[in-house]
Design a protein that fits this description.
Layout: H1 2-15, H2 20-30, E1 37-41, E2 54-55, E3 65-66, E4 70-73, E5 83-92, E6 106-110, E7 122-125, E8 130-132, E9 135-139, E10 148-149, E11 160-162, H3 170-178, E12 183-187, E13 190-197, E14 201-202, E15 213-214, H4 217-226, E16 231-239, H5 243-256, E17 259-263, H6 271-278, E18 283-288, E19 291-292, E20 296-302, E21 305-310, H7 314-332, E22 344-348, E23 359-368, E24 374-378, H8 388-391, E25 395-399, E26 411-416
Parallel strand pairs: 5-6, 13-16, 13-17, 14-15, 17-21, 19-23, 22-24
Antiparallel strand pairs: 1-12, 2-11, 3-10, 4-6, 4-7, 5-9, 8-9, 18-20, 20-21, 22-26, 23-24, 23-25, 25-26
Helix pairs in contact: 2-7, 4-7, 5-6
The chain binds adenosine monophosphate and magnesium ion.
């Protein structure tokens, strides 16, 4: 009887839940990039977002140069058959070019990166020629043009190097520097407000009291945001389950922040306080998302500020952060093509319980089998409050919406934490 009732209840609930992909789409649709820019030095531009397209002021490479250590020759001096001999008349080093054109029938020693002298169009690898008494001896196996990097072959002057909206990663910084660029215009830093809610939540550092727990969500969220974006994190601490206080806090946050990340107070039972506080402040909806962990989620706007009401459970906070908040933060920061968060297949070393109709994110530990293929086991107990299950893990095991139970040896998709954090 009880089973019957709870099954029916579950079915009813299943009807008003929204799939992960739908929730993410709705969130991204409502998310707009902030306006306003900062100028920062290239060295400080990691994880910033370009606000202006960067056009190359130079050809890269700037001059035609040797791709290997060896000898610069004229292609027309290469023997068609038998062997040829060229006199060595000088040296070109990277940064120290040979000062005059290369005469016919002669060669210079050249190091990788050194400009080719006028007239030379070919570099013979040091190991492929015989050097003797001021001459090199060449066999007939070389092709004119070999081992040369041409001016502008990587980038031409005036070419777009990085487009506006580019999320800047380490190679981009090197690329900008290689063009002689010193500063770039990037979108301004996002202001992200953090709030934990709940009468039971205590700040670390305070005396532990019976029935209370220390706040972890503000700390995971701060780390999760700053690992991917340069943002100003504004910490609003902990608010009690008291609608007037919550309302005041949300109002204050919305005035200063681009995005509010609030945790707790969205699950059945405790959502009432948050709902009451948000009524009249903005348009925030309370969703049931077909995701485990992390089913309850509130999302909307207070004025220009995006509001995320994340579930209170510490694992659910992080799961929903990566599925919903991070894509929105990147878009809000002006990123045009967000980096992919790729999954790959691994064999499950365990049976996993899973019901079709929701996406599950279990926490796993990856390793390779003796043939080098990936396999994964869970970190043990998967309760959404067990943060150590995430701390011990190195990936999410992503069990897709329609998927049923997993048998030992089945393939599952994994999303490595190293792609996210
Ligand atoms: P709630 O969504 O407010 O009902 O919270 C769900 C669960 O998460 C409860 O067990 C809370 O005590 C816990 N929780 C809520 N906020 C936090 C927090 N900031 N740090 C750790 N646990 C929390
Ligand atoms: Mg609560």
């Amino acid at each position: 009887m009880i089973n019957d009732h709870s099954n029916r209840c579950r079915d009813l609930c299943a009807n008003d839940t929204i799939p992960v992909a739908v929730a993410r789409r709705r969130i991204l649709k409502a998310t707009e990039a902030v306006t306003g820019t900062d100028t920062v030095s290239v060295g400080a531009a990691l994880h910033r977002v370009l606000a202006e397209t960067v056009v190359s002021p130079l050809d890269v490479p700037a001059h035609t140069n040797a791709a290997v250590d060896g000898f610069a020759v004229r292609g027309s001096d290469l023997p068609r058959e038998g062997t040829g001999r060229l006199r060595i008349i000088g040296t070109a080093l990277a940064g120290r070019p040979f000062p005059s054109p290369l005469p016919v029938g002669q060669t210079i020693r050249i190091m990788t990166g050194a400009p080719l002298p006028k007239g030379a169009d070919t570099v013979l690898m040091q190991e492929q020629v015989l050097e003797n008494d001021g001459f090199i001896q060449i066999e007939a196996r070389h092709r004119p043009g070999e081992n040369v990097r041409h001016a502008g072959e990587d980038i031409r002057r005036g070419e777009t190097v990085l487009a506006a909206g580019k999320y800047l990663l380490p190679p981009d910084l090197g690329l900008l520097a290689s063009l002689g660029v010193v500063e770039v215009t990037v979108t301004r830093r996002l202001r992200v407000g953090l709030l934990s809610t709940g009468d039971e939540i205590l700040p670390p550092g305070s005396l532990h009291q019976p029935g209370k727990i220390y706040d972890s969500n503000r700390f995971s969220l701060r780390g999760a945001v700053t690992a991917r974006l340069v943002a100003d994190i504004i910490d609003y601490g902990i608010a009690p389950d008291d609608p007037p206080t919550l309302k005041r806090t949300f109002q204050e946050m919305a005035q200063r922040c681009d995005v509010i990340l609030c945790s707790g107070g969205v699950s059945v039972g405790s959502a009432d306080y948050t709902k009451e506080a948000l009524t009249a402040l903005g348009s925030v909806e309370f969703w049931k998302v077909a995701i485990k962990p992390g089913r309850p989620l509130a999302f909307g706007c207070i004025g220009d500020c995006l509001f995320f009401g994340l579930p209170g459970n510490p694992v659910a906070v992080l799961v929903t952060f990566y599925q919903f908040v991070l894509p929105a933060l990147l878009k809000r920061a002006g990123v045009h093509h967000p980096p992919p968060f790729p999954t790959f297949p691994a064999r499950s070393l365990e049976k996993l319980r899973k019901k079709p109709g929701r996406t599950e994110f279990q926490r796993g530990i990856l390793e390779r089998d003796e043939t080098g293929r990936w396999q994964v086991r869970t970190t043990g107990k998967q309760g959404s409050g067990i943060l150590s299950s995430m701390s011990r893990g190195d990936c999410f095991i992503v069990l897709e919406h329609d998927r049923g139970p997993v048998e030992t040896g089945d393939w599952v998709e994994v999303l490595p934490f190293s792609a996210l954090m």
